[in-house]
C-alpha cells in the first residue's frame, strides 16, 4: 500500500515533468484513474500533517494527532509519520502527549530505532512526582515492545514495584507480563518481583500481581502459600477483574494442596466393606481405615469456600462463573448447589453470556442433576431466544428429565416441535428420542407421538422423526411391527436423504416382518437409484443384499441390476461396496467361508444405538474456559491438577514472619545476624539466609519447631508493629488450631467490618494512609536490596566521616591539600580547576576565572595532542562520489569553543585528484533538526592537498547521524554529508574526586544503573591494570578516570558528562580476579546512552 | 488477554480497530463474517469462534459487533463481560453507542480504550474514574471549544481518586441541589400457555440510581420485606457483610447513574400476572383465516396498564392480515411477517368485557402454501407504574457522613423486557 502510493506519486511527478511542466494543478487532479488521485491526496495529507506536527502550535499538533489517531482507528497505515510524531512525546499538552503515547504503542514495534528516541522522556516520566504520570510512563515504556530496552524495562519495573503509589505498583505488575512476553529469559528475576508484589498490602495491587503470576510462573504454586489466607480474606475487596484471576488461581491451588473432599466419602464406604470381610486383619490396618473415615476438611480449604461464596452475588458474570468453577472442582458435592441460583440469574444477561453460562450449566447438570432440578422452568425456551440458547436449553431439559418431571417436559417439547424454527423442531425431536430411550415409562408414548409427527407436512420434522424412530425401534423391534409397516409406506413421500436411508435400513433389517412389501420397495429404489444421494445408495445396496439373502428367488435379478448400476457409480465408496457385496453373495468360490455365512454377516443382531446429545459436552476441558467453549485445546490451556492423594503439608501456609516495616527493624535484624554469628552453628546459617533473601526462606519453612520458636521470639517486636494484619493472621492461626469455625465466625466478621469502616474512613483523611504506605514500601524496598547493594550502603556509611573531612577541606578553599590522592600532574591541575569553579559560586573573585579558563583550554589542547593517536577517522564522503574530494571526520575530544553543547568534529578535506584544484568548499545548511555550526569557506584546495576544518554539532545526546549539505566547485547541487556519532563521543570529561563520585553515584542508583559482567580468562586478567583498563575505556568514550583514594587496585572509576545536557555518567569497573570476571557498572540519567556505552565497552574486553 | 478489538457495523464494515499488542490484520474478521453467513440469524453467531491461530469473541449490541481477538486461553465470560462494559462506558459517554457516535468521537473512543485496557488487561473500568481522566463530550464544551479554538479531552488536573480505596467515586463532588433517585424496576419474564395457565413466571428486578450528592455521602437503604430478595447481585460499592447480616444496603455511591442491585425471583415463587389475553387464531385456505384477540387487566392492584403492545410473528405462509382494532393501531409488516398492535393504556376500572380492547379480522394465506401447523406466539409488552409486582418496597434511605439534607425519591415500575413475556396460542 505504502510503496504503491509512493510509486504512484513519483509517477505523477514524472509525468508532469515529462510534459514540460505545463500541466497545472487542476489538470493533475483530473487524471483519468480515480484511485490515483486518491492516493496522491492521501500522500499530500500526510505532508500537511507533518507540517502541523513540526510547528509549535499546540492546537495544530492536537488536530494533527487526532487525525492520525483517526487513521489508526480506521486501520490505515500512518507509519511514515513516525519521526514527526515521536518528537512530540515531550509535548507539554497532556492530550497531545496521550495521543502520541497511543501512536507509539501502535507503531514502536515497527520502528524500533526511532522509538528509542522517546525512551528518555519516559524515564523522566518515571520520576515525576505525579503518580499518574509515573504510571502512564511505565505503561507506555512496557507497551512499545522494543526488545533492545528490555534492561530499561526491567529497571523501571524493579523501581516501580516499590513505588509508594499502589496505582504505579499495579501498573508495574501489569508490565511484568509484557516484559515476560518480550524476553522469557528474564523469568527468574521477574519471579522475585512477583513474589514481592504478591505480598503487597494494597488490594489494588493484588489482582494484578496474581495476574502476573499466572502469566509468568503459574507452576510456582509455592509462592502462594504465604499469601493464601490473605488473598482469601481480601478477595471480596479486589476489583472484579482481579477476582476472576485470583479465583481461577485459587482453584488450581486448592486442587494441588487439599485432598478431594468427595473422594474420601467413597473411601469411607470401601473401608466399611473391607471391615466386614476382613475382620481378622491386623489392628494397624484397622486404625488406618479409621483414620480415613474421619475426614475433616482442611481449615484453609474451608476458608476458601467461605470467602468465595459472597462473590456469587457479583454483578460480573465472569466472577460468578469463576466461583461456580471453583465450587464445581473443589467443594464437596453437598455444597455445589449454592451456585445453581446464581448461574440461573446470569441467564438474564446478554445473549452471549447466556450462551456460555448455559453450556456450562449443561456440563454441571450432567454430573449433578439434582441441583438444577428445582429450576427446571428457568430453562423453558422463549420463542425469540437465539439458536444456540435454544439448543443448550433443550440439552439441559433433556439432561434434567426424569420419571417425575418427564410429562411436563414432554408437554413443553410438544410446543417446541411446532415452533416456526424448523431446525429447533428437529432438535426437539431428537431430544424426545433421548428421553424415550432413557426413561422407559414414556418410551411407548414418545414413539406414538413421533409416529404422529411423521404425518406432518414439514419435511425436516418428518425426516428427523423417522431417524429417531428408527433408532428407538432398534431398542425393541418386536413390539412395533405396525409402526415399521407405517414407516415403510412413507418411503415415497420422504425426500430427505437421511430419512430415506433410515427407512431403507429398517426395511432391510426387518424384512421378515414385511416380506411382501420389501421387494417392491427395492424395485422402486432400483428405478430411482441413479438420482439418489450417496447415503441412500448405500442403503439401497444394503437392502438389496439383505433381501437376496432372505429371498433370493424373487429378488435375484433386481439385485443384479442394482449391483450393476452401482458398479458404474461415480462415487468409489458406492463402487467398493457393490464389489464387496457382489463377492459375498454371487461368487461363493472366491471366499467360501464368508459366503457361507453371508446371512449371519448381513443380518447379525445389532446393538441398539445410544441416543446421544447432538452437542457432546467437552468434559475433558475445565469448565468455563475458552477450550471448554470451543471444544478444542486453546493455546496456553492447562488442565486442573488432580487432588493429591495425601494432603500436603499444611504448615506452609502459616505465616510466622510478617514483613516488617521500619528501618530500626532493619538494624535489629542486623544485630541479630551478628548475634547469630557469635552463637554460631546452624542458627547462624539460618539468619544469614534470611537476611539476604527473606521470601525464599519464608516459603521453605520446613524447620523443626524449636527453631521456629526461637525465630518467633526474635520477631515478636516486629509482629507488635504489624497491627492490623498481624491480628488477622493470628486469628487465622487460632482458627487453624481448633476447627470450630462457627465460633470463629463472629470474630472474623468483626474484623471484616472493621476493615470496611477503615475503607470508608480513609478518603476523608487521605494523607495518613499514604504516609504509611510510603514507609512500608520503603522498608520493603530496602529489604529487597541485594547483597551487593547493602554492602555498598555500608561502605558509603563508612565513608561518611571521610566525606565530612573532605568538605571541610573544600571550604578552606584556595590551598588545596587533597593529599590523599595520587594524581597525575594534569589531572591535579584539573582538580584545582574544578574546585575553583565549585567555589566560584561562593567566594572566588571574578578576575581569576578567565585566567583559569585559558589554562583549561591549554590543557585541553595538550590532551588532544596526547590523544590524537587513538582518534579514529571515519569516512563521510569518498573520493568517487565526491569527484575527487574526500572528506573524513574525527572527534578530537576537545571543547567546541563557540558552543559548549556541541561536539567538536574535525573534517579532513583531501583533494585526491592529481590535476585540478577544488574550489570554494562551503557549508550550506543542516538538514536534520540538529544545530550545526559550519566551517569557514575553504577557497582552494590544491590537488593532493589536505585541509582540516572544525565544525560543532549538537547531537542532543542522541546517536542519530547529523545531516548537512556542503557545496564545492560552485556546483548547483549540494552534496549531503552524514556524520554519525559514536556513543563515546557524546561525552566530555568531567573530573570528579572519589568522594564526589560516590555522592553522585548514590544519587544515580536504581533506575539509572546498569550493570554487566564479563568473564575473561586468567591470562587476560593478569594483564589488566589501571593503564590497560584506562586505555580501553578512553578508546571507547571521552571520560576521565577518578583517582582512587583507597588504593584498591581492582576498582577503577571513570566519570564524564554528556555534552548537550551535561548529565553525569559514572563508570565503575571492578576486577574480580578470583572468578576471572570484570564487573561493569554505569550510572547515568541517560540510560539509553549508558546501555549503548556499556555494550561498546564490553566489546573491548577480550 | 484481549489482543485486538474490531468494531463492525451492521453492514459488515470494520470501521474501527484497536490493537493492544502486535497488530493483527483486519482479515481475521473474515472468520467472523463466515460464521455470520453460516448462521441463519445474525443473533445466532457463536460468541466464541476458533480460528487456526486466534480466538474471536464477539458481542452484538445496537447492531454493532465488537470482535475481540485472543491468542491464549482465558475465560470467555471475562472477555464478553468486558466488551459489554466497554459498550456501557460508551453509552454513558455518548448517551448512545452507535456507529455515528463512535465515529464522531473516535478520539475519545480511542483514549477510553487505551485507558480501560493495559495491553489486554483491564485497568480502569469505573466510569467515575474514567470521566476524570477523559472528559465526556457535551454541547457546552463543544461550543466553548469552537469559540476559543482550544479543545482537549484530557482533564488538566490529574485525578487523585486512584489513590482512594473507593475507585468508583471521585473526590470533590459538588452539587447545588443534592438529590438521590432510586428507580425500582421489575421485569416480568413469563410464558403463558394457550389455556392461560402460567407455565413459567420469574421476576428480574433492579434498582437503578441517579445519585447527585456532594462530598462523600454514606447511604443506607432498607427494605420493608428483604426476605423476598434471596438471589441478588450487588454493585461493588455495597458492603457485603452488612447485607449478609442485616439485609440492608449500606454503600458510598458512585456519582451519577448506576445500577445498585439486581435481584431475581425465581420460578418457584408464584407470581400473579397482571394481564390476560384471550385469543382465537385459525388458519384456513384462502382468506378465511380468523384472528381475534382480547386483552384485559387482572390483579393490577388498582393501577392501570400502560404502553401495552402485542407483537406476533406470523408464519411465513401468511400473505396479509386485515384487522381492525377497537383501540390503538395495528400494523402488519408483510416482509418480516410481524404483526404489531399498539394498544396504549388500559384502565383497570372498565372490567366490562365489551369495552376491553379487541382486535378482529382475517388472515390471508399465500395460495398453494400448506396451512401452518402451529399458532404464532404473542409477545406482550406493558408497563405498570407505581407498582413492583413482587411487592418489594423500600422502607427508608438514610444518609450519613454529610451535613446537608438531600432530596430522596423512590419510584416503582413493573415492565416487560422485549420478548420476555410470551403467550402461546
Automatic annotation (TrEMBL), chain A:
One of its GO terms (biological process) is vesicle-mediated transport. Keywords: Cytoplasmic vesicle, Golgi apparatus, Membrane, Phosphoprotein, Protein transport, Transport. It is a peripheral membrane protein. It is found in: Cytoplasmic vesicle, Clathrin-coated vesicle membrane; Golgi apparatus. Residues 740-755 have a biased composition (Basic and acidic residues). Residues 274-289, 694-739, 768-797 have a biased composition (Acidic residues). Residues 825-960 form the AP-3 complex subunit beta C-terminal domain. Residues 1-31, 271-290, 659-809 are annotated as: Disordered. The keyword Phosphoprotein applies. Residues 1-17 have a biased composition (Polar residues). InterPro entries: AP3_beta, AP3B1/2_C, AP3B_C, AP_beta, ARM-like, ARM-type_fold, Clathrin/coatomer_adapt-like_N. GO terms for cellular component: AP-3 adaptor complex; clathrin-coated vesicle membrane; Golgi apparatus. Belongs to the adaptor complexes large subunit family. Subunit of non-clathrin- and clathrin-associated adaptor protein complex 3 (AP-3) that plays a role in protein sorting in the late-Golgi/trans-Golgi network (TGN) and/or endosomes. The AP complexes mediate both the recruitment of clathrin to membranes and the recognition of sorting signals within the cytosolic tails of transmembrane cargo molecules. AP-3 appears to be involved in the sorting of a subset of transmembrane proteins targeted to lysosomes and lysosome-related organelles. This is AP-3 complex subunit beta. It comes from Adineta steineri.
Automatic annotation (TrEMBL), chain B:
This is MHD domain-containing protein. It comes from Adineta steineri. It comes from the Eukaryota. It holds the Pfam family Adap_comp_sub. Belongs to the adaptor complexes medium subunit family. It is found in: Cytoplasmic vesicle membrane; Golgi apparatus. One of its GO terms (cellular component) is cytoplasmic vesicle membrane. InterPro entries: Adaptor_comp_med_subunit, AP2_Mu_C_sf, AP_mu_sigma_su, Clathrin_mu, Clathrin_mu_CS, Longin-like_dom_sf, MHD. The lineage of its organism: Eukaryota, Metazoa, Spiralia, Gnathifera, Rotifera.
Amino acid at each position: 500500500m505504502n510503496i504503491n502510493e509512493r510509486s504512484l506519486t513519483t509517477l505523477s511527478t514524472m509525468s508532469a515533468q515529462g510534459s514540460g511542466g505545463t500541466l497545472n494543478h487542476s489538470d493533475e487532479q483530473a487524471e483519468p484513474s480515480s484511485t490515483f488521485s486518491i492516493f496522491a491526496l492521501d500522500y499530500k495529507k500526510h505532508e500537511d500533517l507533518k507540517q502541523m506536527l513540526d510547528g509549535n502550535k499546540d492546537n495544530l499538533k492536537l488536530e494533527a494527532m487526532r487525525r492520525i489517531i483517526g487513521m489508526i482507528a480506521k486501520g490505515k497505515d500512518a507509519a511514515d509519520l513516525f519521526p514527526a510524531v515521536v518528537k512530540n512525546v515531550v509535548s507539554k499538552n497532556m492530550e497531545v502527549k496521550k495521543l502520541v503515547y497511543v501512536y507509539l504503542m501502535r507503531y514502536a514495534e515497527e520502528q524500533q530505532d526511532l522509538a528509542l528516541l522517546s525512551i528518555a522522556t519516559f524515564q523522566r516520566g518515571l520520576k515525576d512526582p505525579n503518580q499518574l504520570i509515573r504510571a502512564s510512563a511505565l505503561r507506555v515504556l512496557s507497551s512499545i515492545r522494543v526488545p533492545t530496552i528490555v534492561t530499561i524495562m526491567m529497571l523501571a519495573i524493579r523501581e516501580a514495584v516499590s513505588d509508594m503509589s499502589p496505582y504505579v505498583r499495579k501498573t508495574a505488575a501489569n508490565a511484568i507480563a509484557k516484559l515476560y512476553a518480550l524476553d522469557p529469559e528474564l523469568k527468574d528475576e521477574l519471579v522475585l518481583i512477583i513474589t514481592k508484589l504478591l505480598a503487597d498490602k494494597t488490594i489494588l495491587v493484588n489482582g494484578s500481581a496474581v495476574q502476573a503470576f499466572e502469566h509468568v510462573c503459574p507452576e510456582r504454586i509455592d509462592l502462594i502459600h504465604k499469601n493464601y489466607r490473605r488473598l482469601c480474606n481480601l478477595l471480596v475487596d479486589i476489583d472484579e477483574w482481579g477476582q476472576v484471576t485470583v479465583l481461577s488461581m485459587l482453584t488450581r491451588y486448592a486442587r494441588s494442596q487439599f485432598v478431594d473432599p468427595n473422594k474420601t466419602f467413597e473411601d469411607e464406604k470401601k473401608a466399611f466393606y473391607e471391615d466386614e470381610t476382613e475382620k481378622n486383619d491386623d489392628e494397624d490396618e484397622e486404625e488406618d481405615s479409621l483414620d480415613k473415615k474421619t475426614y475433616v476438611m482442611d481449615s484453609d480449604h474451608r476458608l476458601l469456600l467461605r470467602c468465595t461464596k459472597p462473590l456469587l452475588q457479583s454483578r460480573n458474570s465472569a466472577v460468578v462463573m469463576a466461583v461456580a468453577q471453583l465450587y464445581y472442582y473443589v467443594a464437596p458435592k453437598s455444597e455445589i448447589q449454592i451456585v445453581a441460583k446464581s448461574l440461573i440469574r446470569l441467564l438474564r444477561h446478554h445473549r452471549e453470556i447466556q450462551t456460555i453460562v448455559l453450556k456450562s450449566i449443561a456440563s454441571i447438570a450432567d454430573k449433578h442433576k439434582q441441583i438444577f432440578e428445582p429450576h427446571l422452568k428457568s430453562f423453558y425456551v422463549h420463542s425469540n431466544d437465539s439458536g444456540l440458547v435454544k439448543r443448550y436449553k433443550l440439552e439441559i431439559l433433556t439432561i434434567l428429565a426424569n420419571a417425575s418431571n418427564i410429562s411436563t417436559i414432554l408437554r413443553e417439547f410438544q410446543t417446541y416441535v411446532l415452533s416456526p424454527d424448523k431446525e429447533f423442531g428437529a432438535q426437539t425431536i431428537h431430544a424426545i428420542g433421548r428421553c424415550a430411550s432413557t426413561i422407559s415409562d414414556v418410551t411407548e408414548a414418545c414413539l406414538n407421538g413421533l409416529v404422529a409427527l411423521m404425518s406432518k407436512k414439514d419435511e425436516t420434522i418428518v425426516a428427523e422423526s423417522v431417524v429417531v424412530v428408527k433408532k428407538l425401534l432398534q431398542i425393541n423391534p418386536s413390539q412395533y411391527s405396525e409402526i415399521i409397516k407405517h414407516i415403510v409406506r412413507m418411503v415415497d413421500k420422504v425426500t430427505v436423504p437421511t430419512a430415506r436411508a433410515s427407512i431403507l435400513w429398517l426395511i432391510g433389517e426387518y424384512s421378515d416382518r414385511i416380506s411382501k412389501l420389501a421387494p417392491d420397495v427395492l424395485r422402486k429404489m432400483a428405478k430411482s437409484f441413479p438420482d439418489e444421494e450417496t447415503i441412500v445408495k448405500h442403503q439401497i445396496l444394503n437392502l438389496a443384499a439383505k433381501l437376496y439373502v432372505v429371498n433370493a428367488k424373487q429378488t435375484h435379478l433386481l439385485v443384479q441390476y442394482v449391483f450393476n448400476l452401482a458398479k458404474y457409480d461415480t462415487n468409489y465408496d458406492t463402487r467398493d461396496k457393490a464389489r464387496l457385496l457382489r463377492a459375498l453373495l454371487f461368487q461363493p468360490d472366491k471366499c467360501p467361508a464368508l459366503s457361507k455365512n453371508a446371512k449371519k454377516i448381513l443380518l447379525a443382531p445389532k446393538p441398539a444405538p445410544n441416543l446421544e446429545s447432538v452437542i457432546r459436552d467437552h468434559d475433558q476441558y475445565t469448565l468455563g474456559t475458552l477450550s471448554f467453549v470451543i471444544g478444542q485445546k486453546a493455546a496456553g490451556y492447562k488442565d486442573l491438577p488432580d487432588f493429591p492423594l495425601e494432603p500436603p503439608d499444611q504448615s506452609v501456609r502459616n505465616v510466622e514472619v510478617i514483613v516488617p516495616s521500619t528501618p530500626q527493624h532493619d538494624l535489629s535484624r542486623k544485630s541479630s545476624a551478628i548475634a547469630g554469628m557469635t552463637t554460631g552453628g546452624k542458627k547462624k546459617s539460618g539468619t544469614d539466609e534470611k537476611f539476604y533473601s527473606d521470601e525464599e526462606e519464608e516459603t521453605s519453612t520446613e524447620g523443626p519447631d524449636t527453631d521456629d520458636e526461637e525465630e518467633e521470639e526474635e520477631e515478636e517486636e516486629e509482629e507488635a508493629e504489624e497491627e492490623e494484619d498481624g491480628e488477622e493472621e493470628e486469628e487465622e492461626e487460632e482458627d487453624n488450631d481448633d476447627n470450630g469455625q462457627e465460633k470463629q465466625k463472629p470474630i472474623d466478621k468483626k474484623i471484616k467490618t472493621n476493615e470496611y469502616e477503615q475503607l470508608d474512613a480513609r478518603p476523608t483523611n487521605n494523607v495518613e494512609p499514604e504516609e504509611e504506605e510510603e514507609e512500608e514500601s520503603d522498608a520493603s524496598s530496602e529489604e529487597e536490596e541485594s547483597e551487593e547493594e547493602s554492602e555498598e550502603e555500608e561502605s558509603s556509611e563508612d565513608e561518611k566521616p571521610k566525606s565530612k573531612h573532605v568538605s571541610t577541606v573544600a571550604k578552606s578553599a584556595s590551598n588545596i591539600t587533597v593529599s590523599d590522592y595520587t594524581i597525575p600532574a594534569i589531572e591535579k591541575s584539573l582538580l584545582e580547576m574544578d574546585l575553583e569553579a565549585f567555589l566560584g559560586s561562593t567566594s572566588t573573585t571574578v578576575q581569576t576565572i578567565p585566567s583559569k579558563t585559558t589554562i583549561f583550554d591549554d590543557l585541553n589542547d595538550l590532551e588532544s595532542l596526547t590523544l590524537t593517536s587513538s582518534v579514529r577517522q571515519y569516512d563521510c564522503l569518498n573520493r568517487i562520489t565526491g569527484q575527487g574530494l574526500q572528506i573524513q571526520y574525527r572527534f578530537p575530544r576537545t571543547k567546541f569553543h563557540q558552543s559548549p553543547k556541541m561536539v567538536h568534529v574535525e573534517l579532513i578535506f583531501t583533494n585526491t585528484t592529481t590535476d585540478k584544484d577544488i574550489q570554494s568548499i562551503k557549508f550550506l545548511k543542516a538538514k536534520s533538526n540538529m544545530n550545526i555550526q559550519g566551517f569557514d569557506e575553504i577557497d582552494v584546495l590544491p590537488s593532493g592537498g589536505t585541509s582540516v576544518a572544525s565544525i560543532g554539532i549538537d547531537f542532543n545526546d542522541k546517536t542519530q547521524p547529523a545531516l548537512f549539505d556542503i557545496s564545492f566547485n560552485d556546483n548547483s547541487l549540494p552534496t549531503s554529508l552524514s556524520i554519525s556519532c559514536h556513543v563515546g563521543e557524546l561525552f566530555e570529561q568531567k573530573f570528579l574526586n572519589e568522594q564526589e563520585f560516590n555522592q553522585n553515584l548514590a544519587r544515580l542508583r536504581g533506575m539509572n544503573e546498569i550493570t554487566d559482567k564479563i568473564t575473561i580468562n586468567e591470562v587476560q586478567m593478569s594483564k589488566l591494570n589501571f593503564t590497560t583498563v584506562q586505555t580501553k575505556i578512553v578508546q571507547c568514550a571521552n571520560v576521565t578516570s577518578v583517582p582512587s583514594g583507597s588504593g584498591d587496585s581492582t576498582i577503577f572509576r571513570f566519570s564524564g558528562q554528556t555534552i548537550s545536557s551535561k548529565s553525569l555518567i559514572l563508570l565503575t569497573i571492578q576486577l574480580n580476579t578470583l572468578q576471572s570476571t570484570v564487573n561493569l557498572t554505569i550510572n547515568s540519567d541517560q540510560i539509553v546512552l549508558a546501555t549503548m556505552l556499556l555494550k561498546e565497552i564490553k566489546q573491548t574486553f577480550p | 488477554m484481549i489482543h485486538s478489538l474490531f468494531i463492525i457495523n451492521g453492514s459488515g464494515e470494520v470501521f474501527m480497530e484497536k490493537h493492544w499488542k502486535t497488530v493483527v490484520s483486519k482479515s481475521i474478521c473474515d472468520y467472523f463474517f463466515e460464521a455470520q453467513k453460516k448462521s441463519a440469524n445474525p443473533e445466532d453467531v457463536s460468541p466464541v469462534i476458533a480460528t487456526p491461530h486466534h480466538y474471536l469473541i464477539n458481542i452484538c449490541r445496537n447492531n454493532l459487533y465488537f470482535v475481540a481477538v485472543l491468542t491464549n486461553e482465558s475465560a470467555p465470560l471475562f472477555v464478553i463481560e468486558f466488551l459489554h462494559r466497554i459498550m456501557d462506558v460508551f453509552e454513558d459517554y455518548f448517551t448512545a453507542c452507535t456507529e455515528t457516535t463512535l465515529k464522531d468521537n473516535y478520539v475519545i473512543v480511542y483514549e477510553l480504550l487505551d485507558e480501560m485496557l493495559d495491553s489486554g488487561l483491564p485497568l480502569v473500568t469505573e466510569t467515575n474514574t474514567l470521566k476524570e481522566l477523559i472528559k465526556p463530550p457535551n454541547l457546552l464544551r463543544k461550543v466553548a471549544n469552537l469559540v476559543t479554538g482550544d479543545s482537549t479531552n484530557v482533564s488538566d488536573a490529574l485525578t487523585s481518586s486512584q489513590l482512594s480505596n473507593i475507585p468508583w467515586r471521585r473526590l470533590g463532588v459538588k452539587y447545588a441541589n443534592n438529590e438521590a433517585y432510586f428507580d425500582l424496576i421489575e421485569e416480568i419474564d413469563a410464558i403463558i400457555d394457550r389455556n392461560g395457565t402460567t407455565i413459567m413466571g420469574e421476576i428480574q428486578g433492579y434498582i437503578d440510581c441517579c445519585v447527585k450528592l456532594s462530598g462523600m455521602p454514606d447511604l443506607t437503604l432498607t427494605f420493608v420485606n428483604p426476605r423476598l430478595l434471596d438471589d441478588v447481585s450487588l454493585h461493588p460499592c455495597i458492603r457485603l457483610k452488612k447485607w449478609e447480616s442485616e439485609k440492608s444496603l449500606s454503600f458510598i455511591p458512585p456519582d451519577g447513574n448506576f445500577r445498585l442491585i439486581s435481584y431475581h425471583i425465581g420460578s418457584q415463587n408464584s407470581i400473579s400476572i397482571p394481564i390476560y389475553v384471550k385469543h382465537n387464531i385459525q388458519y384456513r385456505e384462502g382468506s378465511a383465516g380468523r384472528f381475534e384477540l382480547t386483552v384485559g387487566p387482572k390483579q393490577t392492584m388498582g393501577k392501570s396498564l400502560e404502553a401495552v403492545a402485542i407483537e406476533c410473528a406470523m408464519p411465513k405462509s401468511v400473505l396479509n392480515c386485515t384487522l381492525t382494532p377497537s383501540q390503538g393501531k395495528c400494523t402488519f409488516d408483510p416482509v418480516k411477517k410481524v404483526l404489531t398492535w399498539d394498544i396504549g393504556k388500559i384502565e383497570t376500572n372498565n372490567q366490562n368485557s365489551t369495552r376491553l380492547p379487541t382486535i378482529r379480522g382475517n388472515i390471508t394465506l399465500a395460495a398453494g402454501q400448506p396451512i401452518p401447523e402451529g399458532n404464532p406466539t404473542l409477545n406482550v409488552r406493558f408497563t405498570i407504574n407505581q407498582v413492583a409486582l413482587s411487592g418489594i418496597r423500600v422502607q427508608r434511605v438514610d444518609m450519613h457522613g454529610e451535613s446537608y439534607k438531600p432530596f430522596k425519591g423512590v419510584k416503582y415500575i413493573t415492565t416487560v423486557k422485549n420478548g420476555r413475556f410470551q403467550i402461546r396460542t
